[in-house]
Design goal:
The protein has 390 residues and is of the alpha+beta class. Helix 4 packs across helix 5 and helix 9 packs across helix 11.
């Protein structure tokens, strides 16, 4: 007996207030790593009206103009219009950054300390992290979140090209997909809410978004009979930090798997890779993607758990949800032979001490085809397959 259900995922544009905050935080991180790869960065950003506040803990040898970094990030997003209250050149920037706590530093540093069991580099915090992959799309990502990202990225590309000068930076997209027997069958509806200039007709916005954004990027065979909900409130002129508060780390489901895979709760943006919230989540994606790419499962979820200052994960778990071609325990045994989950080894294996993080901030940290994003490689698939099937 067939079973059908609908699953929805959302994406948000670069000008969404929370993504403005994420973009600033990752810009600060990249600036630190560009000068000092050993930087310890935990940068949080708050934006509202015409104010941006950067706070957190940074220990670095880099010499930076944080105010200019903030302005440049906001300018790149596109808040440069005359009618923008939150404007790159006119916002007030407050810097309340301090150095990393020495108590945390001694746990993370590869050195001995009183009360520390090892001189190895430890995890920057306790916590749980998940990685996920499935065979629904070429990117080995869930279809709803990938479709939502495609719509959002296309809208931004058009805005930045100048083709539609009435478009403004704040935007959200959402795609609902019907599944039949566990496989994506059709797109039920697509939602776009996009900020626009005063005086733009709603009918023009709707037609533009359907014909110039949605249809070019989503599979035509999946769109038959789909409902399109474009700016459902009727008007979206006041947006961005003028219309709502933005904080770093509030879009963790947008950043990952759109709700299809579980999430440990830790945000990514503004954190250097000594923070396992970020680096272990990237590691989990690498592992899960290689398991699926190897044909060992149609979908795979990996969970890790860490203790602050401890060099090994306290647990590693694999779940293929009954889709594995071999037992999950065999997959886990192969994974543990191929990959090392020590925080220091994760950084080395994925080459994470580089200023690459601004590439991850918008439209998902996973599923992008960019050689700098090393966790998207499937270079361990054959090795995993041989070991798991031996």
């Amino acid at each position: 007996m067939s079973r059908s259900y609908i699953f929805s995922s959302e994406s948000v544009g670069e000008g969404h207030p929370d993504k403005v905050a994420d973009t600033i935080s990752d810009a600060v991180l990249d600036a630190c790593l560009a000068q000092d790869p050993a930087s310890r960065v935990a940068c949080e950003t708050y934006v509202k009206s015409n104010i941006a506040i950067v706070g957190g803990e940074i220990t670095t040898k880099a010499k930076l103009d944080y105010v200019q970094i903030v302005r440049d990030a906001v300018r790149e997003i596109g808040y440069v219009n005359d009618d923008d209250v939150f404007h790159a050149d006119r916002i007030f920037v407050q810097n309340i950054l301090t150095a990393q706590s020495p108590d945390i530093a001694q746990g993370v540093d590869a050195r001995g300390a009183d009360g520390k069991d090892t001189a190895e580099q430890g995890a920057g915090d306790q916590g749980i992290m998940f990685g996920y992959a499935c065979d629904e799309t070429p990117e080995l990502m869930p279809a709803p979140i990938m479709y939502a990202h495609r719509v959002g990225a296309a809208l931004t590309a058009i805005r930045k090209s100048g083709k539609a000068p009435w478009l403004r930076p704040d935007a959200k997209s959402q795609v609902s997909v019907e599944y039949v027997d566990g496989k994506p069958s059709r797109i039920v509806n697509v939602v776009i809410s996009t900020q626009h200039a005063e005086g733009t007709a709603h009918a023009d916005i709707k037609k533009f978004c359907i014909e110039e954004v949605i249809r070019p990027v989503l599979p035509a065979e999946m769109l038959e009979g789909a409902e399109f909900l474009i700016n459902p409130t009727g008007k979206f002129v006041i947006g961005g930090p003028q219309g709502d508060t933005g904080l770093t780390g509030r879009k963790i489901i947008v950043d990952t798997y759109g709700g299809m895979g579980r999430h440990g709760g830790g945000a990514f943006s503004g954190k250097d890779p000594s923070k396992v919230d970020r680096s272990a989540a990237y590691m989990g994606r690498w592992v899960a993607k290689n398991v699926v790419a190897a044909g060992l499962a149609k979908k795979c979820e990996v969970q890790f758990a860490y203790a602050i200052g401890h060099p090994q994960p306290v647990s590693v778990h694999i779940d293929t949800f009954g889709t594995g071609t071999v037992d999950d325990d065999k997959i886990l045994a192969a994974v543990l032979k191929v990959f090392s989950f020590k925080p220091a080894d994760i950084v080395k294996q994925l080459n994470l001490l580089r200023p690459i993080y601004s590439k991850t901030t918008n439209y998902g940290h996973f599923g992008k085809n960019d050689p700098d994003l090393t966790w998207e490689r499937t270079d361990k698939a054959e090795e995993l397959k041989k070991l798991a099937c031996a």
